[in-house]
Amino acid sequence: MQQHEGGECATTNNGAAAADTKADEQTFSKVFKSDFDAKYNIVDIPTPVNAFLSGQFKRSYAYHTIRNRLPVILTRVIDSLTRDKSELIAEFAPNQFVQHAREELKIVIGLISRLKYELQTDKPFQEFTGDEPDHDLWNDFIAELPKEGRTFYQACWMYTECYTYRKLYSFVENSIFIKQFDCFGKIKEQALIGSQDAILSLAKYTRRTENCIEMFAELLKMNLWSNRNDLSDDGRLFNMEILHDVSAMDEYILINNVEDIWICLSEHNSINRQHVDIVLDNAGYELFNDFILAEYIIEKGLAEKVRFHVKAFPWYVSDTTKRDFNHTLEYLSKHSDYIISLIGNKFKQFFDDGKFELAPISYFWTAPHAFHNMRNLEPELYQSLQQSKLIIFKGDLNHRKLLSDVCWESTQDIKVCLGGFLPSNFCTVRTIKSEVISGLAQGVSEDLTRKDPNWMVTGNYGIIQFVDGSREFGY
Ligand SMILES: O=P(O)(O)OC[C@H]1O[C@](O)(CO)[C@@H](O)[C@@H]1O
């Protein structure tokens, strides 16, 4: 078989014909590609500074995600529904409705396939027409988008990605038999079980800790690197080895405001701001890290309560839902390893004692909006965050929503990027997986780009960035 760009071409019995075929195919593949770009108004440039991340910019991670990653994620869901069809029907459908459930499953698979087709052919976002609790939020959002800015490649990447995951879930939530099914449940379960060794080593390592900034800094760094695990991108796997010497990764932490965070938590001046909020990201090992960090904050007297914010439904493959949250506590507390089970039961006791709390579930966290819209769209959530001593935003998507998914100058002051969002002191703990960043020193971005042009999307670098909420410019 002759190899050529994009795969293998068939052999022929005539050398001249083969050469013609190869030339034709190369011409065709060039024409085809430019047709795709021309057809969907894609420009062959990186994301311009101060522009929204968007699939319209071919040399962006947004384009790669829409062109390659999201179709693969949707295909994997279709494959798992097809492969596990009998298991699903047995689990969710009463005997007398087995045939109906089969029919329904076929329809759901068809809807996901159509979503994939719409994604791949840059169709406009479709309204939500089912019983979605956040139905109006989404339809108002879509209606307010400019006509030319409400298709998969032309919209802000954050809108496209959030829409894709929201639509995917709407097919399940509007079904009759598989309403309770989590398309990503199996992947998350496997990841949790697969991180058992890292959970045990972190558990052992954090049993007798000093109440000092050095220990807090180490915990926060381990928490940061646990965010590298990304089930939506196979290329970003967490290297559990780093736990043995987390400071070896310090050069990869581009902003480290641990000292400011420590000072913020060590203050006990205002009596009513004695709780910390953690806006969670991924389930599994990262969630365990969040529990360990919260345990430290409580046991060292840095706050009286830690409130956890989960997602209302399965989101971005591995984000934590209430079910993941409770399942993880059960998994830990019933674990065969004595130390893990001890810690799991301790965390459960913290809930009983009111030291840990699951915050009321808000659909704002699974909305497409940047966080500066929270005050208007979800005032209760904003007001509850205003009572927080410190809000810890975990992960890359939360960071993108803080900064409105804009490709800022890397040296831009983060306070300029927030659009006035500042309910209280907050920090963003995120491995860098998208071309959104602010607050870097002059020249850092250029140096890193020379070393690795993809440094912003590998997850190899991270930030622990603090914003003082006592500033007046917030609203
Ligand atoms: O779990 P995190 O840290 O939000 O990162 C996951 C996300 O990172 C991205 O690659 C960029 O934000 C998304 O496409 C992906 O799903």
Q: How would you sum up this structure, described in words?
A:
This protein has about 475 residues and is of the alpha/beta class. The protein has 2 domains: about 60-180, Transcription Elongation Factor S-II, Chain A, CATH 1.20.930.60; about 185-475, Rossmann fold. It is built from 18 helices and 9 strands. A 7-stranded mixed sheet has the order 3-9-8-7-4-5-6, with helices on both faces. Strands 1-2 form a two-stranded antiparallel sheet. β1 (about 1-5) and β2 form a beta hairpin. It is globular and about 70 Å long. The relative contact order is 0.10. Residues about 1-15 have low confidence and may be disordered. 6-O-phosphono-beta-D-fructofuranose binds next to α16. Its EC number is 2.1.1.-, 3.1.3.-. Belongs to the damage-control phosphatase family. Sugar phosphate phosphatase III subfamily. Its cofactor is Mn(2+); Ni(2+).
Largest sheet: 7 strands, mixed
Instruction: Give me the side-by-side strand order of the main sheet.
Output: 3-9-8-7-4-5-6
Query: So, the CATH homologous superfamily of the largest domain?
Result: Uncharacterised protein PF01937, DUF89, domain 3
> How much helical structure, as a percent, in the residues?
40-55%
- Counting structural domains, the number is 2
Bound molecules: 6-O-phosphono-beta-D-fructofuranose
Query: From N to C, what is the helix and strand string?
Result: EEHHHHHHHHHEHEHEHHEHHEHHEHE
Ranges where pLDDT stays below 50 over 5 or more residues in a row are 1-15
Strand content: 5-15%
Head-to-tail CA distance between termini: 65 Å
* General form: globular
Find the structural class using helix and strand composition. Answer: alpha/beta
Tell me, what is the CATH class of the largest domain?
Alpha Beta
CATH architecture of the largest domain: 3-Layer(aba) Sandwich
Tally of individual helices: 18
- CATH-assigned fold name of the largest domain: Rossmann fold
**Radius of gyration over C-alpha positions, nearest whole angstrom:** 24 Å
> Could you give the count of β-strands?
9
Q: On the 0-100 scale, what is the average pLDDT?
A: 92
